[in-house]
Write a sequence for this structure.
């Protein structure tokens, strides 16, 4: 995995092999960040990275000037890796080791961008719970967006607040807005 743009552009990051992750592919990540870059001024953003895994998305945001990032994952190896790399690269990424659904149920902070990259084989009902919790608990700031990454076999278009989706290979980013 590599950082595509910003201060650490081109930097290769090698995550430990024992982490239960599927990092977002560079082509898909580049497409996502092109979309977000046309909509937001990155240094002003407050970002929540759910199912953060290797921190791939958090590192990309931080490299592009975002200094208010919270990464949530339930696997301690993932949280330790994100913290280690963030420290090495002097990135201000806070981490929380928690089940994402429990975190969303108790969190009161609001964010401009919430990115969620759950396991592709997660049940559709679990996918539906993500936007439900986020919008019920009003976790997005004004003009904020929820982005859920999923496989092309999963269709989230019927979920309330769905706005649009973009496909990149086997990955799809579904965008949700208020």
């Amino acid at each position: 995995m590599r950082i595509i743009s910003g201060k650490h552009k081109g930097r290769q990051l090698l995550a430990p092999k024992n982490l239960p992750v599927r990092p977002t592919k560079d082509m898909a990540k580049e497409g996502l960040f092109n979309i977000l870059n046309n909509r937001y001024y990155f240094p002003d953003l407050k970002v929540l990275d759910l199912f953060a895994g290797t921190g791939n998305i958090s590192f990309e945001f931080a490299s592009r000037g975002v200094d208010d990032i919270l990464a949530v994952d339930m696997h301690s190896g993932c949280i330790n890796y994100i913290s280690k790399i963030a420290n090495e690269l002097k990135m201000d990424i806070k981490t929380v080791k928690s089940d994402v659904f429990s975190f969303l149920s108790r969190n009161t902070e609001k964010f401009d961008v919430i990115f969620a990259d759950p396991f592709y084989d997660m049940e559709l009902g679990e996918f539906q719970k993500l936007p439900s919790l986020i919008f019920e608990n009003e976790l997005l700031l004004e003009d904020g967006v929820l982005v859920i990454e999923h496989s092309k076999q999963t269709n989230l278009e019927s979920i309330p607040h769905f706005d649009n989706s973009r496909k990149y290979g086997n990955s799809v980013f579904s965008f949700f807005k208020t």
Q: What stands out?
A: The radius of gyration is 15 Å. The chain has a mean pLDDT of 95.
